[in-house]
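Record type: monomer structure entry
Structure origin: computed from sequence
Chain ID: A
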Amino acid sequence: MSERGSNLLRQMDQVAGIPLSLVLGLFRRRRPLPAEVNSIGILMLGVIGDTLLASAILPDLRQAYPRARITAFISHANWGTVDLLTGLDDVLVLSVKKPLSAARLLRRHPVDLMIDIGQWARISAVLAAMSGAKFTIGFKTSGQHRHTVFDANVDHSPVRHEIDNFRALLEPLGLTATGSPKLQADIMNDIERGVKSRTVVFHPWAAGYKSHLREWPDKRWAELARRLICDGYDIAITGGPSDYQRAKALSEMIDDPAVKILAGTTTLRQTAVILGRAACVVSVNTGVMHLAAIANAPLVALHGPTNPKRWGPTNPKAIVLGPGAEEGGAYLNLGFEYPPSPPDCMSKISVEDVLRSSLTAIEQSQKPDVFGRPVWSPVASEASPPQ
């Protein structure tokens, strides 16, 4: 049973997690921050996108506590981010499907300070309370009944970008966080030493609860691919192992040798380099979209029910397309607030708009850098994505 998007796990979290959080909160006395913080734990039990955005707090923690050992406690859903992030000393994987085993693992690795990045799930709040940490911080999210277990809680805002919510988790420490997500130096070196290819990367797949409502129709992906191929570009389709069959079907629909299937064949680390060297990335709102933004790739981000003001790419050069709230879109806050009969928001994005935005993103990336060198050139375009 997948941790990501599992209705059963969500129901269990609500049915058992809410009363357990309330009970733990009743018997919990709020403690002061320890005078010395020598070890910090970060509960990152969410998905890849959340983990990447939340890593923005790592530079500020490093600066404030230069001698502290920082450990990330992650889940099977986001373990691939381990090879991407910088600023961590240790990483331990917890199973959210086995909360008692997860709690025992946490208690075997006690920390002075535990920060829970979870926005709504009660399981991470309960685990933070049971971890044995001397001081805990987490979100107070409206209607989620999880904040009572923390020594300090931070209001989770539905009107600011999620990266700013994550930064706010450091306010109880007296810190004003300004950091941004950073990929490991060797990944960025691989990207910067390489050259832009004439490959446009497609990431058509979303994940999680009702993920199909955040995906663009396959026929439009196929039409976009044919138009880009006519303009001289190759197409690469990324995704996880579970996306391979869908990527294969899309490739067959396009029916052109210029299409390469990368879904299920590359690690997240390899994908980061491919994204960074691409002529352009076209992606729905998902973790790979955030990874492309962090890798500074020319990016066109397709949004429907997901609000880009809350979950859009952090790279200001990215082009965001999708219906706004006045057109029936951009209504998701935490990711599960779908109405009984949700509108088809993604179909409101036209192939023509995506094609025009993709070519604009490519053109912008070809402009000379501060040293007068072209970021992309016809010579460089002969390079292919790394294997």
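Annotation 1: The first strand starts at residue 39 and ends at 44.
Annotation 2: Residues 313 and 353 are 18 Å apart (CA to CA).
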